[in-house]
Amino acid sequence: MDAHKKTILFVCFSWASMGAGETWIDQYMAEADAMNKACGAKEYPACREHLLRLEGLLDGRADIEYRLAKAEAMLGNKDAALEKLSIYSKSGLTFADPGAAPEFAPLKNSPEFETIRGRMQTSAEPLTASRTFLTLPEPDLIAEDIAYDPVAGKFYVSSVRHRKILSIDKHGVSADFIREGQPGVWAILALGVDSKRRVLWASTVALPEGIGYRKEDQGRSAILKYSLDDGRLLKRYDLKNDTKHALGDMTVSPAGDVFVADGEGPVYWVDHQKDTLDILIDKGVFRSPQTPALSPDARRLFVPDYSRGIGIVDLATKKVKLLEHPKELSLGGIDGMYLSGQTLIAIQNGTAPERLIRMTLDRSLTRVLAWETMEANWPGLGDPTHGVIVGNQFYFIANSGWDHMADDGSLKPGARFEPATIRVTSLVTSPTSPGR
Q: Which of 114, 134, 180, 228 has a CA positioned 20 to 30 A from the CA of residue 203?
């Protein structure tokens, strides 16, 4: 979960320059500010140089490729502009129409440009291979995460707005597992099931979208440990209220360890032996870490950064390297992410369009060999958030309701709540256009 989703990607950067700094994040902020100034002043050589640096810092994000294409076109570099536009057109993202951009007027009569336009039209077509498993009972839940207990055959869904957890049995019958209004429980975000130890893990964050939010709680966050069998709160793990936190995403290992991403930068974990919440990766490595995924051997943690791509954490050394991928695959804006064998599924709700993608990794799990869009461009998808793998099926939350909310937690003017749905699709089925 990113508390500022939709404001990070594909928008004009506006940070003040901080100099080079010690981390890629400091460099990112400084380069983005310099790029804005140079491009805004139509100083295209400088604009291009800053964009090339951002291309490396942001792991080839599609919006940077598109801006580079514009800069190259304005510098008269036709071939370079078409190359960058080709990368953008293969990304499957459609946040900008090259045909409407005056910068590309000199390219419009080329056959390469027509091919690019054709790809863009294909990328805008609806794709789905999922079906509705369940429509959630309350329209204003703002459903965030979903987990599954194979022992009881139950799903669990978190509600941001009503600050509660729902349980759903195999017949689709739902009930409150944790009722709204529990003391010290803010918006419920991440969920994780440890079926062996009969534990449901949850994260709670003080967010204005939650009913009863108090401004004095802003930035507070905690991990909650519940009994799966009777709903008792077994333990609470609070972070110090010395800085802003947003424990928004998690995964649970077979050994019972819990890995938790703080959307404000750090990654934490609860070692099942120590039973304490400790820092795993400190601030400065990730800008906005999201749902982590554990490798099958439990030695590496895959962590998507909402601002750029996917980092692979070696849990023994704490060293991090980026997942290698084709140039056209833009990996910013990932919220939920799940690994099964060599198949990696990502839910991108920070992109346009919002979508689900499926990646096939190599045997070493360090490089993307192939990828495809699973779900995109159909109205019922709405703002997807998280999912869970059950056998060879993937269940995910669609139309969560996040996109109806303003930053202050109120409903956007003209918006109305609609029930979220849980959709299900095969891990291997190829998507088709609805109605075909």
A: 134
* Tokens describing residue 290: 């999201």
pTM over 0.70: yes
DSSP 276-292: -EEEEE-TTS-SSB---
Return the axis-axis angle of helices 44-57 and 62-74, rounded to nearest 10°. 160
| Helices and strands of the chain, counted as H and E runs | 5, 24
Please name which of 128, 98, 87 lies closest in space to residue 375, comparing C-alpha atoms: 128
CA distance 71 to 66: 9
Q: Which residues contact 3 (CB under 8 A, 6 or more apart)?
A: 205, 207, 246, 248, 263
Phi and psi at 226, nearest 5°, equal -110, 150
Which residues lie below 8 Å from residue 216, measured CB to CB, with a gap of 6+? none
Q: What angle do CA 175, 154, 238 make, to 5 degrees?
A: 75
- Give the tokens for residue 299: 């030695």
Strand, helix or coil for residue 404? helix
Q: Dihedral through CA 418, CA 208, CA 260, CA 428, nearest 10?
A: 20
Rounded distance, CA 141 to CA 131, Å?
A: 21
Distance CA 372, CA 357 (A): 6
Q: Closest by alpha carbon to 370, among 350, 337, 346, 344?
A: 344
Q: What is the pLDDT of residues 171-213, one digit of tens each?
A: 899 999 999 989 999 999 999 999 999 999 999 999 999 999 9
pLDDT tens digits, 34-73: 999 999 999 999 999 999 999 999 999 999 999 999 999 9
* Among candidate residues 51, 58, 121, the one with its CA nearest the CA of residue 84: 51
Distance CA 177, CA 192 (A): 14
Nearest to 25, CA basis, from 262, 281, 286: 286
- Residues 221, 210: contact at Cβ < 8 Å? no
Closest listed residue to residue 308, CA positions, set 42, 20, 23, 117: 23
Per the CB < 8 A criterion, the answer to whether 139 and 419 are in contact is: yes
